[in-house]
Amino acid sequence: MNEKLNQIIQKLDKSIIDLHQTRRFAKSTRVYPVLNLCRRIMALPEGNRLIYERIQSIEEAGIFAGTDWEFPERLQSTITASTIKNGDASLVILEALNQLRFAAVANDAYRHPRLSSERASHFLSQSMALNLSLVFGQLGEAERIQLGSNADALINNFAFVVEQIGLGNIIEKLIEEIWRLLLQRPVQVEPVKQMVTQLSVYLYETESALGNSQNRGAERLISALYGPTRGCQEDPGLDVYRERLSSMDDMALRNEALGFSRAMHDTGLVSPYHAVFLRYIHHKHNEIVAICLGLSSTGIDSMASYSTLVQHLIEETVYPETSQVVLGLCGLLERGILYSNPVALGLWRQLYLPISAESKRKLESTGNANISPRVKLLSGVVQLLGQPLGLGQGNNPLCQSVRALTMWAENDPNYLLKLISCAARDNNIQMYFEGGRLSSEEIMAYNGHNKPLKDLDPVSAVVVPHLDAIYHRMGQLCADRGEDIHKWVNPELHGWWVGRDFSIAVDINSGMLIDYEVFIRRFYACYHPLYNGNTPVVNLQPAGIASTDSLSRFLGWHAISILRVGFDPESVTRVYFYNPNNDSGQNWGSGIQVSTEGHGERFGESSLTFEEFTSHLYIFHYEISEQRSLESVHAEKVEKVKELAFESWAGSRI
Is 559 left (phi over 0), alpha (psi -120 to 50) or beta? Predict the structure, then answer.
């Protein structure tokens, strides 16, 4: 170590001690010296390794206290790029330190109490893939100017992290990750599109060779966005493509329509060229629209029955900047929900709905800044109705409210449209709890309940703050009843279809298991087709799980919806459920890996074997009149569930 670096390191060690000894409320006064020294050290060749060796003590001293980075289990890798590009100098260095922290955890050099090595490795692979220009040190002039004095520190930081996790797997993992996420058909795909764009630029500039399977996967993704048809296969630009369309005959237009629908349904991505094409044909060549959307007979009939409404929706929502709405429109038509007259009328109302200033402010923080708030909201409505299970809670603790949106989109879209119109137009939602009226506007005004939300789709951005306020107020109204509040809140919040009987596995005061064997038997007797008389799950049912990481460590209670129970292609009984978490394919530890495809899942569904799911369940609703005999449930089934639970979250609750 040279003398200059040695002197700075000594200063850093002293600053870390000072920060550690400072009380939490005053730590902000001691953070800047540590960040400044870290920036200077990172810019030096061996600097990141030296900080990497100290990252645990730096975190324990409180460098992340009071920031988003204080809770690593909540961090989203997709936000890394925007933080680096738009954050100030301090935020950029905090993100760089976070990368070193995750690298240490991924390599088992730091056993973090709330972060597993697998989760850390997964985060870093995504983060590196979204910042390939930094990984390869290929910064453009604009990026260098933007990063200023942090540029060298960040390039060194990313190079060191890549050295820790290995460069060879990043591109392959990126391709695998994109496909894995797209198979869940999320409503928000901007992070995925950024990944595809980064992949395209990297492969073009480096002329890298991939394996045959990876190469085919990459080509399908890139072409789906930038050249899905013969008319735009070389990515000529939207203006050039518009000119080409005017010279195409009917056969050429049909071929274009087929190419767009194949790419969309193959990948779940919608190209901006697809939006240009659909806007061009929906008046002049309406008979080709069904081909362009890839509709079945159900969708074709729905579109024909409501052709004027569909044309208005295309005209008002489909733009290159909102191209993903095309997939939502397809889903909406295929579901046949327009045949419910209130849904069709609700969409007509939405087309001309005036939006309040507060709702416009919320919408401006979502999506493309060039799209008006009205178009954003209308596009979001179409996507939610077309892809109810594609909704995610973003980087927010909003699983209850986001789950409610998906349940209404599936079970009662008319009611959902009413709530959206009230929230957007009136900046207020009214609900009733046990006969008493609740107003979200009054609750938020009284409680100051207006927390900033991140990474939400347009509908969630407008509606969720109101739902969250009402949900918490309902909880307050029954908090003194000595039982879990969801027993009363879930039926009142979600709707009549929620089972009025309630079962819980833990005592709410002590957190210890209570009557756990009865709980397991009851769930089997109510939901397992071999024990409940083969009665299907008719309506989505809210439930709660004990969320754990890949090391089986308890993270907290989490809201999900039970969608259906059935046999997978291998005749194994599985529970198919909706998880509002942005990524539903999770490792819960003890060999329990949540599946999102390959076991009979539909788009947006997660699934586990019945035993695995039950082992993480802690509350569910049911109808006592439909419950079958508890004694008929085989003892070995109960013991298997108990064994899985005791190996995980329930081990310390016996």
Answer: beta
